[in-house]
Amino acid sequence: MPGVARVVARMDIVGPFLGFVNTLRPDHAQTVNVWAGPHNVQIATGTTLQPIIAIGIQGITVATAFLVTADQNITVAYQIPTAPAMLLNKGGIHCFSDTSITAVYISNVSGLLANLTYFIGGN
């Protein structure tokens, strides 16, 4: 059954002497046919190019909304495993809205077990 994926992001800039300086708060809603999550997955150290299995298996062939965070430094490759991987630092967030992601691959060379949390919506 279709639903709405609403992505709300906020970034505040705070200066050391000026206090609050500026904010950016985009709010985007889109229709999705399938959603899954939040999912918590453990990624062992030394793992390379582990696919996020929600794409292609749980009824999502194209992710149009995706959010991922982890408690260790990991890298994330989007679309194809040979794509340049983006670093996701411990506690950081990758968030996409109204996009077309067909595959996500996770690598963990942090030396520690990484706890990954993701939420995905799409068609």
Please provide a written account of the structure.
The protein has a single domain (32-122), classed as Jelly Rolls (Sandwich), CATH 2.60.120. Helices cover 3% and strands 63% of the residues. It is built from one helix and twelve strands; from the N terminus they run E-E-E-E-E-E-H-E-E-E-E-E-E. It has one helix spanning 54-57, and strands at residues 3-8, 11-15, 19-24, 27-32, 34-43, 47-51, 63-70, 74-78, 86-88, 93-101, 104-108, 114-122. The strands form four sheets. A four-stranded antiparallel beta sheet has the order 5-12-7-10, with no helix packed on it. Strands 6-11-8-9 form a four-stranded antiparallel beta sheet, with no helix packed on it. It has a two-stranded antiparallel sheet with strand order 1-4. Strand 8 (74-78) and strand 9 (86-88) form a beta hairpin.
List the topology elements.
Elements (H helix, E strand, L loop, with lengths): L2 E6 L2 E5 L3 E6 L2 E6 L1 E10 L3 E5 L2 H4 L5 E8 L3 E5 L7 E3 L4 E9 L2 E5 L5 E9 L1
Antiparallel strand pairs: 1-4, 2-3, 5-12, 6-11, 7-10, 7-12, 8-9, 8-11
